[in-house]
Amino acid sequence: MSQRKKKERDFHNLSTPMNISFNLIAGIFSLLCVFPFLFVVIISLTDEGALANNGYRLIPEKWSFSAYQYVFDMGDSLIRSYGVTIFVTVVGTIISLLFMSFYAYAVSRKSFKYRNFFAFFAFFTMLFNGGLVPTYIVVTQLMGLKDTVWALILPLAVNAFYIMILRTFYSTSVPDAIIESGKIDGAGEFRIFLKLVLPLSLPGLATIGLFSTLGYWNDWFNALLYIDNPNLVPLQSMLMRIETSMQFIMQNASNSSLSLEALRSLPQDTSRMAMVVLATLPIIFAYPFFQRYFISGLTIGAVKE
């Protein structure tokens, strides 16, 4: 017993410095990950004149909210674009998960006769696509989605790469015995998917859901192609238009009716940082909802006692 206690004491003495070192390294790494965003927030709160004279500083010489005031001067347009982006993100993520989860589940079942054909059909789109012009014609003319909110949702609703990920997740994480037990009890395929497969697939669906959420929230290209109605402009496209208009004013300062002093007071650099904060901060709150499912995904293949 004394030898065993000695080994335990030696292990404890050895593990304590290792834990402290590991926690220190993890803390430094976490700080390095968070610091760029914090620095962007600091720059967005810096006075434009102080930024031009002294450059970027961790502690600004003069604080200012002029960048946010300039952006929020858009008023109802900015709030409306937030609403459009939130609606597109929520509805688009739900539709994407429905389409891709059903498709991936079908091609993951060995009993499905045409699983190889539909799996290849999805994989083929990862290698080749129709191109921008045919896609534009399909969305605007065949589907008639020009200047509608669905033009921001449906083109991103299905992603072949995510389907392949979900198919692999279904194949490895959902035992065939569970599905067979459901069939023995008389359940149909739809009920088996909802009652048995879906609860086991939450980690995979949460991962794909987060990817889809980020894709919808950061999308600006579809709005550039399909949206002319100012009431349907999403957040990212609105912020790009604000920055483009500011750059146009600065580049054509000599022909502008504004005074030189007014042009210098425009928060050109700080407003860019303010736009990054406004576009990034809301989506950060989506991560806590998916975190526990990520942890479950890490231990999905572990041996349970």
From TrEMBL:
Give the UniProt entry's GO cellular component terms: plasma membrane
Instruction: Report the locations given in the UniProt record.
Output: Cell membrane
| GO BP: any one term | transmembrane transport
InterPro entries hit by this protein: MetI-like, MetI-like_sf
Query: Which keywords does UniProt give here?
Result: Cell membrane, Membrane, Transmembrane, Transmembrane helix, Transport
Transmembrane domains' residue ranges: 20-45, 82-105, 117-137, 149-171, 192-217, 273-290
The UniProt entry lists membrane topology as:
Multi-pass membrane protein
Q: Which SUPFAM superfamilies match?
A: MetI-like
Q: Residue ranges of the ABC transmembrane type-1 domain? A: 82-287
State the family named in the UniProt similarity comment for this chain. Belongs to the binding-protein-dependent transport system permease family.
Q: Report the protein name in the record.
A: Carbohydrate ABC transporter permease
